[in-house]
Design brief:
two-stranded antiparallel sheet, mainly alpha, single chain, membrane, 274 residues, 2 strands, globular
């Protein structure tokens, strides 16, 4: 395969990943990062990018893509009346601060640590979707402003280190605190922007001047991959949102559970070398 063909295949795969991420973002209220980060990791390795920065670049680029994807998805959900202004006011401030801190602190973490964070959290998210561990742990907590703000900060920090919009964490958290699934999904899509913007900015600063980062990068954000992913993600996020509002709350829970289980299994297999 010559260089041009190889390039077309690789960026074509990124474009398709963007389409999948957009549909998933709208459907499940997630940013699509849990799809984009693994795909980018494989493609960047094939391109010969240095192992030490592959996951940092994948996570940072994913966060950058989530900004327009999240906006597209959030607008689609807002038109359906599924975005809660009350929850946005409660979650956004602490989520912004924690996400920025996550992007900045990523510069101090090795590639191994970043992979462990992504893998372990993906597995925990998948397990929580089958066995409602989080709901049991949070059952004694009140639906108070303090509970929401602390939850938002934890989710914001973890999500920025994973390159995700946080929906796979914030949706079950809101559900555990008694919010309806459609409202949780819609609000989560908007909150993904409040994770992605400060998180991406943190990765720009922490990756500035770092060796091994490819050309045409802004800090850790790899602009060619961002463009390839963003086009498909922006165009298809409204489709996912439209599908979400045609499903019942119970069906939406099942879709979310199946999706997270697939991701969890993939991460376990990768962790054990499968």
């Amino acid at each position: 395969m010559d260089f041009l063909t190889s390039l077309l295949v690789e960026y074509g795969a990124l474009g398709l990943a963007g389409v999948a991420a957009g549909i998933i973002a709208g459907l499940l209220g997630v940013g699509g990062g849990i799809v984009m980060v693994p795909v980018m990791s494989v493609i960047f390795a094939a391109q010969g990018m240095e192992e030490a920065v592959i996951l940092h670049v994948a996570v940072a680029t994913s966060l950058a893509v989530i900004v327009p994807t999240g906006l597209s998805s959030a607008l689609a959900h807002h038109r359906k009346g599924a975005v809660s202004g009350e929850l946005l006011k409660l979650w956004a401030p602490s989520m912004v601060a924690a996400s920025f801190l996550g992007g900045i602190s990523a510069g101090f973490y090795s590639s191994l640590v970043m992979r462990l964070i992504f893998g372990v959290m993906a597995i925990l998210i998948a397990v929580n979707s089958v066995v409602p561990i989080q709901k049991k742990l949070m059952a004694h907590l009140s639906d108070s402003a303090k509970t929401h703000r602390i939850s938002a900060a934890v989710i914001g920090y973890i999500s920025s280190l994973m390159g995700i919009g946080g929906g796979s964490l914030s949706v079950p958290t809101m559900a555990a605190l008694g919010r309806k699934v459609h409202q949780a999904v819609g609000t989560s899509s908007a909150l993904g922007v409040f994770i992605a913007v400060p998180g991406a900015l943190g990765f720009v600063l922490s990756g500035w001047g770092v060796g091994g980062v490819p050309n045409y990068a802004l800090g850790y954000i790899y602009l060619p991959a961002f463009l390839a992913l963003a086009v498909g993600a922006i165009l298809f996020a409204p489709l996912g949102a439209a599908i979400a509002h045609k499903l019942s709350g119970e069906w939406l829970k099942r879709v979310l559970t199946i999706y997270l289980l697939i991701v969890g299994v993939r991460m376990i297999l990768k962790a054990i070398g499968g």
